[in-house]
Amino acid sequence: MNPPTQYQRVVDNSTTSIVFTVALAAAAMVAVAWFGLEEEYGSRLLHDLRTVHCLFLACFLPAAAGIVYLIMLRARTVYLVDYAGFRTPQNCRIPFASFLEHSRQLPHLNERSVRFMTRLLERSGLGEETCLPPAQHYIPSEKYCTPEAARAEFELVAFSAIDDLLAKNGITPDAVDILIVNCSLFCPVPSLVDMIINRYKLRSDIRSVNLSGMGCSAGLVAVGLARSLLQVAPRGAHALVVSTETITPNLYIGNERAMLLPNCLFRVGGAAALLSTSSAKARFRLKHVVRTLTGAQDSAYRCVFQEEDGEGHRGINLSKDLLNIAGESLRANITAMGPLVLPIREQLMFAFSLVARKVIVSSSRRVKVKPYIPDFRTAFEHLCIHAGGRAVIDELQRSLGLSDEQVEPSRMTLHRFGNTSSSSLWYELAYIEAKGRMRKGDRVWMIGFGSGFKCNSAAWECIKPAPNDDDGPWATSIGRYPVHIIPDGLKH
């Protein structure tokens, strides 16, 4: 939610002023009636009192009514009641050796591509416990990646996460007023939201939205959409957001290196989150959502592109300029987010640096001035950076000047679960809580990247940390983390 605007501050100040004025006027009227109504002045005072009363009704009551009306129009605070991540089953685990052996069985994949994927996996930051959907464990995998298998993967992931979420909060399906599902690459008929409505027998008047093709940052797009819909829903309404990526039907079987990367990085995963305008049972308060879209630029639009290779095999082509485009989008996003969350000192330092760079660069093209990177540790205690890949995390750590501890949730999520697309941010938040690092009042910054190209971010404030006995996606493995990841430069 955006910070109080000038309009909202005027409303708040006016509310306080009008309440104080009305109370003062009422007290004055009572004082006059109590002390001033002596017999010799009675008639004159009563006349004056009637005049004051009429002026009060003519001026203050309409003003008070207008203030109340403006308050009713003000945006409501949105809360995160709770969330749940899909707990990947052990029988879906895919060690590197198994993954490479399955890849060798693909009829069109050559040995050169297998060697490339081997080097990529060694540098990826993924561990040996990441999971693929059941269909991709069969040989040959492409024959089992059918629409039925894709539906089965979605049902396994989404229904498991929703079941866990509803169970630990005691929320019944009838309490859900809004349903939003985001899944980029799998868009069946009936839609994914219809599958959930049918499974849980949700109400016929539920507001449902299915988001597709919006990439790994679609989870925050869904959160922003849920916030907007909750503003016009009855107070206390609940919005269920389901974020996942069904990868069963998206196995690439060709030899284009840029299109082999998703095979190596993407893994099965998903999360469900429950938002509401009621603070009852809420665990986080949504403070801000900032979206940055750069799709007007052709290079940004095509940097993550679904297409066919020269042999007709469909896959996702990741451009070599992806990191540069992501960096540009991030800079634009933090420029918008910074004034909302940074203290005045950091804002002034950033503004001074920006002006100085423009002045110096315009006067001397040979002089290079490094931009001032605001210290976001002054605004947030925790960061959840999309676990899109090792290179993405490295670039953000360098760009924002983050410590290893600050990017630990992202690296460990990538190691344990792989790139689970839009749900990775929720796995990272779960990691922070499973480690017992979340405290009441802590602020969390989520940053997601997605096709289009988009950089979206959200700021949360913790109201109530998770209990120590929380049975989340990290329940069976949190004791082994963090693990040491060998720097990329030392690998060979």
Report on the structure:
- A hairpin with a 3-residue loop joins strand 10 (443-450) and strand 11 (454-462).
- The longest helix has 32 residues, at 42-73.
- The strands form two sheets. The protein has a nine-stranded mixed β-sheet, sandwiched between helices. A two-stranded antiparallel sheet has the order 7-8.
- The chain is 44% helix and 15% strand.
- It is an alpha/beta fold.
List keywords for this structure.
492 residues, alpha/beta, 9-stranded mixed β-sheet, two-stranded antiparallel sheet, 11 strands, 44% helix, 15% strand, disordered N terminus
Summarize the structure.
This protein is of the alpha/beta class and 492 residues long. Helices cover 44% and strands 15% of the residues.
Principal-axes shape call: globular
Beta-strand percentage range: 15-25%
- Low-confidence spans: pLDDT under 50, at least 5 residues? 1-20, 30-40
Largest sheet: 9 strands, mixed
Structural class: alpha/beta
User: What's the mean pLDDT score?
Assistant: 86
The helix tally amounts to 14
Order of helices and strands: HHEHHHEHEHEHEEHEEHHEHHHEE
Radius of gyration from the alpha-carbon trace, in angstroms? 28 Å
Give me the side-by-side strand order of the main sheet: 3-2-4-5-1-6-11-10-9
Distance between the first and last residues' Cα: 46 Å
Number of strands: 11
Percentage of helical residues? 40-55%
